Fold this sequence. Notes:
- The complex is a heterodimer.
- By secondary structure, chain A is of the alpha/beta class.
- Chain A has 13 helices and 20 strands.
- The longest helix of chain B is centred in the first third of the chain and has 21 residues, at 5-25.
Amino acid sequence: MKEERKYWNPAVETLPRERLVEIELKRFRELLRWSQENSPFYKKKFHGIEPEDIRTLEDVSKVPMTEKDELREAQVGKKPYLYGDLLAVPPEQLSVFHQTSGTTGKPVYIPDTYESWQWVVEVWCYILYGAGFRPTDRVFLPFVYNVYIAFWQGHYAAEKLGCEVVPGGGLETKARIQKMMEVKATGLMNTPTYGLHMLEVAKEMGIDPKRDLTIKKMICAGEPMPEPTRLRLEEGWGADVFDHLGGTEPGGWAGMCSEKKGMHVIEPHFLLEMIDLETMSKPIPPGVKGVAVITSLCRRSIPLIRFNLKDMMMVRDEPCPCGRTSVRVDQVGGRVDDLRKIRGVFFSPSVVEEVIRGKFPEVVEFETILTQEGIMPVLTLRVETDPSVAESQQKELRKIIREQLKIRTNLTFEIESVKPGGLPRYTLKSARFKDSTKK
Amino acid sequence: MEYDLKAMDLEIKAIEERTKRLRELGNGFMAVERNADSILTFVYLLKKNVSDLIE
């Protein structure tokens, strides 16, 4: 009898941890040397560091971290045009262009050679296979791909894995839902927000995705997905929903397996380190919330070495029943950049999503706004409910939401009801937190 | 399931060698050069997936 194939790479994914770390250290040294020899930015940044001296993970932590602002500065006004001092290959070898969204400043341009792009795609094959995508799947991608990396990797990885890929860009949401029905798609890739939006639209069309569609697995990208949001998607779609971690600079670097408890780092293609939130430099052990620092070990066009992701996460160190030996990581608390100290309390907007998605199924959309009244910061939550919620029920709902948020955050929110359709819907990165106090 | 990584590695190296030779023979012949380069890209990935695991 044919053994069930659980892994994209059975040799790598079940390697003993010590061996994984050895390979990661060897690749780290190679990447460091490559960067020093080929990228003016890293040549300067890592001047005096001898790659052969990096023998342990502790040695790695002595190499300076790379911040996003440094990547920007290394590109502005420098040659070759767009990529500047970061580029570590001759420009004529480049074959793919992507850029960051520019949410936190000027975009960073990330090109790839054919080789480094194929590596990015390969890593996504680990993620998709781990989430149960197989050559028998017909995968629907309801997005227009563009300068951002989102879904390009997913598209090419699904194709490489052997799935049949249905590009669903250039269609309205209703047409996409009809197309999924027509082709009997079994897999779906989308943002969590758009997955929820499609549920709303399907309902308007009299379609129950659980009953009328054939989606059995979904992988989400583009924005953090708290567990209550993932569960809401599973319930609405009647499908297994998986999360992954990735970005333009590192590529996709971790994915959920069938256990759906944390995300496996794609080792030894990446080296993940966790650092302390306070000092932003001290390494922390598993089980402690901190900030993720990542090295993409095999992407040579624009190397990314000890890149501060500014995402708050926590590593799990218990073995995973799926048999993979890579470490798992949970997203906890959103982005460091979004953290605010309000009335002496640390507030992360991602907590609002956890509360709303976990406890209030009647709320279809929401946004949090931080304003300042005199010296007092004010948090307002605007909620839009399903049209079936009567006007007379809104007051009670606002009261319960306020209480639940107070319990979770120790902060008092102003709650406002918004008429159906009054809040924006997002297809890629959502912007549900607006800080009006920022100059 | 056990895999013979060493045997796979030998095949990967043989593909690499032959592809490099093909590329030299087709120097200036774009349809050969570019397709040979593509093969070498996938050889690179095979090395990352297999050869690098051999101690």
